[in-house]
Write a structure and sequence with these properties.
This protein has 18 helices and 4 strands. By secondary structure, the protein is mainly α. Strands 1-2 form a two-stranded antiparallel ribbon. A two-stranded antiparallel ribbon has the order 3-4. Strand 3 and strand 4 form a beta hairpin. Helix 1 runs parallel beside helix 7, helix 7 runs antiparallel to helix 12 and helix 10 packs antiparallel against helix 18. The longest helix has 34 residues. The two termini are 21 Å apart.
Length: 460
């Protein structure tokens, strides 16, 4: 018996006690997936809306591109990742539904606080709160999904949950653009308790309220039994359930450092074109093509609905099919194939002079990113034991958000302001960041295929 197998974990209150090999009823699993999906949609709306409102926010608060990068990227991501690791530790030990509840409540209150911000510092701290709250969702959700769905359905379940990014972005662009258009027709709007609000503040206030109702809905989730990654065996008894400390997690990652680095860095790099657009895309279309939030709302909503749905589903279905045929490196095969096609698209999209062509290339870009990355949690479910899965997924999001929100936000702003010499050259910076990220990610996944085959050999 290894050290990892010898550490007991107490039974979690409310956790199901399914017999070995018996998965939760489909109705229970599907309800949980629906609630988690809805939470991810709301989370991504709250995360995305600041980029859509970049023009009125920066104008009213007199922010430079670098300050906006600090608020829109660093404030969220730094504390998202800082809170993510300890929350991942909690996910491996305590009730995941309660962790989701607290997270949803915190980020919703922070979104409301954004509407009231009167200074750069206040705005920064409000986005910090959004990051801390949302840090609770991903590790808990992916851990729950892995225990709700057997391996042959897990890829599609993960893809459905991950579609929250696409649907959230779609709603943010559509509703955000329309709300700002509606609100802009008045100098200010009045809301109970909050008083008179300028148009962009009104949008944040309206979007923060539903999250508080959603927090209550998450309490309807049922905590499933924790299961082995390899055989799906439930760990329901107090004596038979396990956990491991942070030292055991470090030992596990060191033992599997090759596949872990490939998983975490590979998918994080591939996501950079998408992450870059989520922060800077509205500004790109405003500066290069003269399109404002109201004009962007419908085309961007359509792009973040149809191509993302198709990409998520195709990537997950291909991964599930290859895994069903016994191909143990299936997630990396799917990711590498789609990311290879992504490289030229990520470079061209920010540079073209036609808005119509830019929209077409953006649709292809988000399709390929979703097909590449949407199934990433399948790797964690196949590689990491249940007692370490929350920390393992939190580590992925730690790196992904440091790269995609903090570092890349600052690098893009630095290239635009200092290297190319002005805001109008934002497209050049985005092309460099997106093209390099897709190429590096593709190379890492190709290199990691043999490592994934070896590590996941006991999963099939």
């Amino acid at each position: 018996m290894t050290q990892l197998e010898a550490v007991p974990i107490p039974y979690v209150a409310g956790e199901s006690r399914e017999d070995a090999g018996q998965w939760p009823a489909p109705r229970t699993a599907n309800w949980a997936l629906g609630v988690l999906f809805l939470a991810y949609v709301v989370a991504f709306i709250d995360r995305t809306i600041l980029a859509i409102l970049i023009r009125p926010v920066t104008a009213e608060m007199d922010l430079s591109d670098m300050q906006f990068a600090l608020v829109g990227g660093v404030a969220f991501s730094l504390f998202y990742v800082t809170a993510g690791l300890p929350i991942g530790w909690l996910v491996d030990r305590y009730s995941r539904r309660l962790i989701v509840f607290v997270g949803v409540a915190v980020w919703s209150l922070s979104t409301l606080s954004t509407a009231l911000a009167q200074s750069f510092g206040w705005l920064f701290l409000s986005r910090v709160g959004v990051g801390i709250g949302e840090a609770a969702l991903a590790p808990a959700a992916y851990s729950l999904i892995a225990d709700y769905f057997p391996p042959d359905r897990r890829g599609r379940a993960v893809a459905i949950y991950t579609l929250g990014v696409s649907i959230g972005a779609c709603i943010a662009y559509l509703v955000g653009g329309q709300l700002i258009g509606f609100a802009s027709r008045a100098d200010s709007l009045h809301l109970p308790l909050l008083g008179a609000l300028s148009p962009w503040r009104f949008v944040f206030a309206v979007l923060g309220i539903p999250g508080l109702l959603l927090a209550l809905l998450t309490l309807t989730l049922r905590e499933p039994a924790r299961r082995d990654a390899a055989c799906g065996r439930a760990r329901a008894s107090e004596a038979g359930t396990e956990k491991a400390g942070f030292g055991a997690f470090v030992a596990f990652v060191r033992q599997h450092k090759g596949v872990s680095a490939t998983y975490i860095l590979g998918y994080s790099f591939i996501n950079l074109p998408f992450a870059g657009f989520m922060l800077w895309g509205p500004a790109l279309f405003q500066r290069s093509h003269g399109l404002g939030p109201a004009q962007l709302s419908f085309p961007l909503a359509l792009i973040f609905l149809v191509p993302t749905l198709a990409g998520q589903w195709l990537g997950a279905a291909l991964t599930d099919r290859l895994q069903g045929q016994g191909q143990r490196d299936a997630p990396f095969v799917t990711g590498a194939l789609a990311s290879a096609l992504l490289v030229p698209v990520a470079i061209a999209m920010p540079l073209v002079g036609s808005a119509t062509l830019a929209f077409i290339l953006l649709a292809v870009l988000v399709f390929l990113v979703c097909a590449s990355v949407g199934h990433h949690a399948v790797v964690a479910a196949n590689v990491a034991p249940n007692r370490l899965r929350g920390l393992y997924i939190a580590s992925f999001f730690f790196v992904q958000n440091i790269l995609g929100q903090a570092i890349i936000a600052l690098v893009t702003a630095f290239l635009t302001d200092r290297v190319f010499g002005g805001p109008i050259f934002l497209g050049r910076s985005m092309a460099i960041v997106g093209g390099c990220g897709a190429a590096l990610g593709c190379g890492l996944l190709l290199r990691g295929r043999s490592m994934l085959r070896r590590v996941s050999s006991d999963t099939f």
